[in-house]
Amino acid sequence: MTHSTSTPRAWVPWIALLIVLVVAGALVYYVALQPTGTGIVKEYKPLEHRVVDHTEYFREEGITKYEGSKTCIECHEDEVREFFHSYHYQLVSMNEGINGAARPFGGKLALNDFCLSMFINNGSKVLNWIGYIKLKKAPEGYEELVGSFTGLTGCSMCHGVGMGLPPSQEPSEEQLENIDCLACHAKPDVYLSGPLGIKKGYKNVTKDEKGRWRYVVNIPVDKIAKSIVDVPYSQNCLACHAFSGGGPHLKRPNLGPDLMDPELAAKFDVHFREGLGCVDCHRGGGHEFATSAADTWSREGEAVECSDCHGEKPHRGIGGLFLNKFHKRVACQTCHIPYIAHGEYPTEYYRDWSKATFLPEHKRWKFSIPDPETGDTGKWHLFSNLKPVYAWYNGSRQVYIFPEKVDPIPLEEVKEKIGGAIKASEIKAANGRILGAVYYVKPLGGRDDPDSKIYPFKIHAAILPYSVKDKVIVPIKVGAAFATGNVTLATLLGAKAAGVEWKPGDYVLYIRYMQVNHGVQPAEKALECLDCHGPTVRRMPWGELGYGIYPEVAFTTILVAIIAVVLLAAWKIYTRIKSTKT
């Protein structure tokens, strides 16, 4: 019996090797290197801004000046009443998950880390609200500036869309006529509210017949009549929100003047590039603008989520399958907003209320911000292009609410980096001692909580006065600080008004986690696998998140295993080719 044998053709192993290499390369490309495409399951058509000319109506009714909602209420009483009860006027809404309970909270009841308290006694007594702040004291060489307007009219510049009266819960005639309708419903090239409106001279303050400070609008009524719009522009919103905290982009992470300029906005946030604006995500039905961030308080209706447009499985391709499967506990913002303050304007990470620095160009004093390298308090140090801090968040938060008693924790326990430049334990008060740290807002959640996701945060810290006797953060009369530079005096005035005792020099580090939701980058600029799963810890604090070193070890092991299999297969094919030739 004869057995026939056949020798494999020499090119067959080479084809096999090529196939292995192509398949391996494709897997590496799609899983590790290719930017993930974002699928859109619901197209959002940007809202249109329609001008509603009121010229004829104003002429018929003999309206010669704009006086807030007093001018509008005859035809729009339902809308005025609706807005009166909204967060943007009342500065309070019902919040779930604050210190384990549901309670009304908001700017009216808060003692925050930027400008402290507007009201005390559960919102019933004004502390910092409205006025015409003039410089009362200046350092040597600047005495001629004393008496100058500082450009500040109080917290009401930003908080509360009104004409100057503090918000009341009762809708009296006077209160219903106290709303600034044009803040949202005027073309932004004609009128803007907030600090930008003060700076541009669109509005200012004066005293009414009862001696109360009120805002007045300095725009001719015929010009106003031709510029009334039904839907706010983004610039209307940003005139306040982009300048909160006392300056451009100081407060809200990635919510700055970049978004007011169409060219800059297109580079800064992909949604603005696509023609969307503030009210496209914050729709404002019934004058309600819901938010869901850990450090915001407007809980009116349901906030828009990324999945409302992009679905629960937004990533496409082979790499997308991997992302959709294994990243359900990671918020979209975590990968798609890699940096804070990545545009033209830096943002603030901490401020020191123990001392004031004189700013001659603004004709006022300001809290000091020590330079993180030199400790120089004469320099206002801000930060750009910084990585966020990552933490679990399940919708609930730990919040300090004045006048609740609180014991500061040791600074050594505060591991977060403030501003990505210095550790909190290294911050020193310019004019006193820091007794420890207190969390103003801290998100709650964890790896074992199925409702938690990993979110990006900006951590802001402020050195604020603390009463050792009463165990509370002490409010400051901030207008006095801006006018005189005497922060000690301003704090003693705030302490007296609040009925607490303060020893000059006693401070704590007051810390707020500020959720990063804006400044979304295109898919090609999103974080890639190795940014978080590299062989060394780079972005993600896996230990603090409850994972240990597993995410790095596991991902690196998988990559090494894939490379080893490919190399082993290539080696076997190579040896087969070599033996065949032999």
- Report the biggest beta sheet as strand number plus sense, adding barrel if it closes: 8 strands, mixed
Report the uncertain regions.
1-8
Cα radius of gyration in angstroms = 29 Å
Approximately how much beta-strand content do the residues carry? 15-25%
User: Counting H and I runs of at least 4 residues, what is the number of helices?
Assistant: 19
Q: Mean pLDDT score, rounded? A: 89
Question: What does this entry look like structurally?
Answer:
There is one protein chain. This protein has two domains: about 10-35 and about 550-580; about 55-525, no CATH class. Helix content is about 30%, strand content about 15%. It has 19 helices and 18 strands. The strands form six sheets. Strands 9, 10, 11, 12, 15, 16, 17 and 18 form an eight-stranded mixed sheet that branches. Strands 1-2 form a two-stranded antiparallel ribbon. Helix 1 packs across helix 14 (about 315-325), helix 1 (about 10-35) packs antiparallel against helix 19 (about 550-580) and helix 16 (about 480-485) runs antiparallel to helix 17 (about 485-500). The longest helix has about 30 residues, at about 550-580. Mean pLDDT is about 90; it is low at about 1-10.
